[in-house]
């Protein structure tokens, strides 16, 4: 981890700001409605695998943002 701090000093601030911005955008009522509709649509197709699928997508976004730094 120390190597990342030396090589990419702006990694943690950029990642933190990205997650805060995503949280603000997600809290909008229209975005929340879209999220709920997306969950319902996935549940009809994947049933009990939906939470695992959503967790995998979330972790993919987390890893993608961390690689941008």
UniProtKB/TrEMBL annotation:
It holds the Pfam family TMEM128. The keyword Transmembrane applies. It comes from the Eukaryota. PANTHER family: TRANSMEMBRANE PROTEIN 128. The keyword Transmembrane applies. InterPro entries: TMEM128. The chain crosses the membrane at residues 12-33, 45-68. This is Transmembrane protein 128. Keywords: Membrane, Transmembrane, Transmembrane helix. It comes from Ictidomys tridecemlineatus.
């Amino acid at each position: 981890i120390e190597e990342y701090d030396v090589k990419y000093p702006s990694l943690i601030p950029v990642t933190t700001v990205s997650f805060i911005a995503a949280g603000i955008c997600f809290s909008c009522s229209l975005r929340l409605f879209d999220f709920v509709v997306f969950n319902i649509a996935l549940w009809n197709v994947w049933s009990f695998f939906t939470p695992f699928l959503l967790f995998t997508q979330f972790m993919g976004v987390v890893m993608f943002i961390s690689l941008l730094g």
